[in-house]
Amino acid sequence: LSAIIASGVVIAEDISREVGKIQSFSGDVWINTDGELLNVKTIGRYSIKKEGGFPSLFNGDSIITGKHARAIILLKDATTLNVSEQTTIKFNVRKIDGKEEIRIIEFQEGQVEASLDKLSIVPTELHVNDQKIIFDNPSRINVQSNNNEVFLQIASGNPKLFFNKTGYTFNLLEGH
Description:
single chain, 18 strands, mainly beta, globular, 9-stranded mixed beta sheet
């Protein structure tokens, strides 16, 4: 937690809040939280990570899927992530200029299908290698990363693709 003192009032920013929940899973799936690796199959009934049903995910947590494993993650705004086997993603929520939130999903290798629902109000970026996919409208995409190569398939919507090295932004279209 970070605190800001303004006019004698302490305002706390809760950066450890819940960002979503594992909706379902199969195989070996782990949550890496504060350096502790928790197996989703064996998380205890009284764990702070498990609040009625499957485990919750908090800001800074990572999901890791093993061989032949899958996980479906439902984020707080109804965004759904289908995480395929041997994939690692990390969740970060940051403030822009201390006001607007942005959700960053860091993704290195594996495969993720992201469905950003019409209800989504949190700008979302999927960071993969030196690129980021910016969702600023309802979209559904499939992202695959292997050996520093990134493959995208746009099922619906028109997210943007931004290259960090060059600064170029491309509008992606449905069917690309």
